[in-house]
Amino acid sequence: MKPIVSIIMGSTSDLKVMEAAAVFLNQMQIPFEINALSAHRTPEQVAEFAAGACERGIRVIIAGAGGAAHLPGVIAASTTLPVIGVPINSSNSIQGIDSVLSILQMPSGIPVATMAVDGAKNAAIFAMQILSLSDAAIREKLGKFKAELAEKITKANAELSAIKFEYKVDK
Predict the structure, then answer these.
(1) Rounded to two decimals, what is the model's pTM?
(2) Contacts for 98 with CB less than 8 Å, ≥ 6 apart
(3) Under 8 Å CB-to-CB from 115, ≥6 apart: which residues?
């Protein structure tokens, strides 16, 4: 089995956030890899990774970073693959806002899809949406997942309708 999604983080301290992407992809049976690469500490390795990712069969890259959060952009500069950035509220971050802006404000020609702060699970879902464009099996898994989300709301509304208040009006 070869990975088709690559989860990259600036350091293993980001794993507590990025693990949500790994857990979701694992549940959905999407082959992935997970590594730490630093845009600042190992720039040559980042460039080598990004340049060779497509050739290795990677189809989407999820890159999480805190603070200055250059990792997703540096990767996007060296590949034609879609890159999904996850801003991380890390110890050197200003509540993740600096990370959001660093990932969001990419120069023209180097796009990075930007998730919410600590939004690794949404990054994995978005990666599946990209993959589903050319893979019917992934599209089916994603459809089932979305149906389960809708069912949770239907169930929640049934539970809410059972709650009684003197002035609560039911439909």
Answers:
(1) 0.93
(2) 67, 68, 69
(3) 84, 85, 86, 87, 122, 123, 126
